[in-house]
Amino acid sequence: MTRTGTAAVTKADAVAGALRQAGELGEGDRITGLDQLLGGWSRHSFFADAELADGATRRYVVRAKPRGALLDTDLTAEYHIYRALQGTGIAAPRAFCLEESDDTPFGGPFFVMEFIEGRMVNMFQARERTWLEEEWSGSRRLAEDMVENLARIHALPAEGFADVPELGFLDVVYLWRGVYEDKRLIRDPVVEEAYDWLEDNVPQDTWTGLVHGDYSVRNALVADGRVRAILDWELAYRGDVRFDLGYLLLARLAGKHLRRRSPLVNAFAEEDWFLERYGELSGRRVDRESIRPFEMLGIIMLLATQFTAVSMYTHGHTTDMRMAWSRFSLPGLRQDMVRLMQW
Amino acid sequence: MFNPLTPAEVVGAIGRAARDAARSEEPASEFARGQLMSAYSASRHLGVELESFEPELRLFGQAVAACIRQRADAGGDGERMAALADRVEATSDARAVGDAVCELLDALRGDAGVAAGELRTEVRSLLRQLADREVDLLADVIEGPARA
After folding, report:
1. Which of A291, A293, A327, B89 is most buried by its number of CB atoms within 10 A?
2. Any CB–CB contact under 8 A between B107 and chain A?
3. Residues 6+ apart with CB under 8 A from A283
4. What does the pLDDT read at residue A160?
5. Whole-angstrom Cα distance, residue A169 to residue A167?
6. Is A249 helix (H, G, I), strand (E, B) or coil?
7. Residue A232 — left, alpha, or beta (φ > 0 → left; ψ -120 to 50 → alpha)?
8. Any B CB within 8 A of A56 CB
9. Do B3 and A307 touch (CB under 8 A)?
10. pTM
């Protein structure tokens, strides 16, 4: 976590001002600390600590979209999603206020939301996968929470999410193919065949609803073996919700970098159980074969972020070594693509 | 094998991460340590690449060229296909091989004939083998030998 002198004070004032305007803080309340969290290429997240006039303390989370973010996603839409999730039974923090200006101390728009105790589980770490497997072998509460929240998300009426983009299956393909064409530094025959494969495998039906777009235990806050909040809605769109199922089924989401690491879906549940339980909760039986195009959609989305990261590094927009390292994530994903296409 | 950033560019990135760490006057933060760990991981992957990718890519190119020449009537333009075969077997540069194979597949996509279909299947099979080989070479070093 980092703290800088004058810049932190200015950001703190901006957060305090926004919270006062929303009625969440009073005139005598102050933001006394602002610490940036690790991670996040398209969003910067901060803990904002408040000291209230009566001596109590409170913590908030600030989400900001800095200039030159990895993906040009809509922070305003993300804020409205959090607002719309209130009262739906989906685990989500309250969002209090949004500052839409590009000219803020955070380098772009930001919003402030409720702090919820919990941690994000990193399925790429062996000890975390072991813990997830123990949870699966034991109470299974985490697995139940993950599938219940997903089914609820997919059942939400579209009317509450008017400013979330609506994307058909091919819209998603063209979106990520466009990123490849724009950002690629080398032509990849497997990737280009995959885009054509997707155009040849458009599903005949559509399960329309709110798609999270990056649903994973890594984007859930977990405490005491329970899901306390679903986070990171910046890739959400209105479209075929089977994207979230396909994405979860990727070996990558079970911790694969090169070799498969866990037989469990997203390292938290057996595949048959997960799909059957989702079917029970959603009222829709999942045909496993029908999910394959959505697995491929998930891979091309991941690839788009990797291509963008490497391109940003190459063109000097960032010196973050993790962006350059992204090129090493391609071999594992390429292998998954050739297997999906059954070459 | 068709990975953005050349090995030389990756070496440059690793060097910059080391330089930034050396020049920093701040105590090592979690972010700064993460940068160095990424650089270390990159060096391990790059070591495998420098040691073993070039001969694999050369073998792949030769196999693709042989397939093209065996199906001389695929892809429409015989001269163009012969030129692609020459290009793909003459280099082990990933960018050049990627370009040639993409152009080959583009040409075959527009040809509904049996020979084109068979050639496409063979090239895809070779790409699959190459993808698996790349993962195995990296995984043996990065993640240890596969468990039986």
Report:
1. A327
2. no
3. none
4. 82
5. 7
6. coil
7. left
8. no
9. no
10. 0.93
- Both structure tokens of A71: 């993906």
Q: What are residue A212's phi and psi, to 5 degrees?
A: -70, -45
Nearest CA in chain A to B136: A258
How far CA B59 is from CA of A69, B4, B48, B56, B64, in Å, comes to 40, 21, 17, 5, 9
Per CB-CB distance under 8 Å, the chain A contacts of B134 are: 331, 334-335
Tokens 């993962």 belong to B135
Residue B10 tokens read as 């990756």
| pLDDT at residue A3 tops 50 | no
Q: A246: closest CA among A178, A198, A308?
A: A198
Which position has the higher pLDDT, A6 or B72?
B72
Across the interface, of B16, B42, B98, the residue whose CB is closest to A187 is B98
Q: By the 8 A CB rule, do A292 and A201 touch?
A: yes
What is the SS3 assignment for A47?
A: strand
Beta-carbon contacts below 8 Å between A and B: 123
Could you give the CA distance from residue B53 to residue B138 in angstroms, rounded to a whole number? 10
Q: What is the CA radius of gyration of chain A?
A: 20
Q: What is the pLDDT of residue A69?
A: 66
Name all contacts of B108-114 with Cβ < 8 Å and 24+ positions apart. B108/B74, B108/B75, B109/A196, B110/B76, B111/B74, B111/B75, B111/B76, B113/B73, B113/B74
Q: For residue A265, give the DSSP letter.
A: B
Q: What is the pLDDT of residues B116-128, one digit of tens each?
A: 999 999 999 999 9
Q: What percent of chain A has pLDDT over 70?
A: 95
Residue B31, judged by CB atoms within 10 A of its CB (0-12, 13-18, 19+), counts as: middle
Mean pLDDT of chain B: 93
**Distance to chain A for B104, nearest Cα, Å:** 9
Instruction: Quote the minimal CA–CA distance from A153 to chain B in Å.
Output: 33
What is the nearest CA distance from A297 to chain B, expressed in angstroms?
A: 19
For A179-222, the pLDDT digits (tens) are 999 999 999 999 999 999 999 999 999 999 999 999 999 999 99
